[in-house]
């Protein structure tokens, strides 16, 4: 309750607000009576002080300081008995109260301060008990809906009817989970305003705090945002449109109870989703590792996750460009939340563009399988264009940069292990060239197909003969040389561009290439030599994929 509500009780019917009227909406939780000179040291926020002013009657400046200090401390207001020790409220005190919006109330000579304190406290307690009964009834009503299996949708619908305004429950990616009737879509203007406001908070949203935002649109749009959390994890937002909270405390109590019940139901959903995600990741890990026996078993298990046997797919492997430990200070919980946020945005993007898409994780990578309309190169181009919009969305909503390695289109999903390796190879190729926020298609897929017909020992012999002493780098110096050579070839033998991407001086690149020439034993300017080296490095990615990944990881 606020100061204005308290002034409505009979014992304060003759009281008069003489200053600070703009602060009558200040919350009142308790009433205190005190005349000690050091009153301020004993006051608490949301407390109304009643006094005769005896301790400060000869110190007008101290009365002004008291008003300022009470306002800064968050007190509710000041009630003074006039004509007892103070003939009137000092003008300088009135000016200070107006400036700080702290209500000053002149109390009548009768009744006594003790009677005023007792009756106001009783009134506060009765109102608090009434609010608690209301909250308990609302909580019981919402909980019953959930226990009967109607879920958060019924809670949102009933809350909207109770408040008399539209209500939406959004997930962390601002997808609508549930909405009051007729409001199943999120207004794009609202979405942009929410994003702008949340980003201004730097990800730190106070517990159970509402934010009212007024967009400069025609007509003006006002809404209030309530975070929904489970175990301190952000699970979504409840958005209430309009201004139902100006009518009193009960709408806020209804929302708070609805949020509590929603958090409980979302916690159950979260547990189911995490278990489903874990099982899905285990299936794909076994699939990619070759631990599932027959193709028929792969097909049958794949159907559980929406994979269709004769459906072409395009595969993309995604990673966050910045190392998460550097991005979030090494805190495991925040690190997990950042990865979850990227996963949610990828999942949202996949659901918005197609049905039957699959997203799973392997290690630090996110793997997307998007159904293709037909088998062909055009599908790969469409996938790349879509991934660019996904990059922008993740940068906008999550605030991190991601890159993608894109595989060629595959005819059947049981070809996924090959597509995954090619996506990983493309991703590492992009990182080797020193880039960030890129989409790297898999190169030379025709050569890769040809290589599968060549005996492994012949490929290894060609690789070792081509790179000689750089074929199996055993120390950091040779790894640096091999990495420089790879970037140099990727940039069409342009020394300046190579130096730029490696963040080193041009002379350093020249020196390293001279060392490569010495170790390989061939002139790097010869076209047939550069072609041979490109093929050798392609073989390196195919034959030593995981080993090359580990070696190049420190250079990406």
From TrEMBL:
Coiled-coil region: none
Domain of life of the organism encoding this protein: Bacteria
Domain CdaR GGDEF-like positions: 290-429
Location of the Purine catabolism PurC-like domain: 5-123
Residue span, PucR C-terminal helix-turn-helix domain: 481-539
InterPro entries per the UniProt record, alphabetical: CdaR-like_regulators, CdaR_GGDEF, PucR_C-HTH_dom, PucR_C-HTH_sf, PucR_dom
Family designation: Belongs to the CdaR family.
Protein name in UniProt: Transcriptional regulator, PucR family
Biological source species: Kyrpidia spormannii
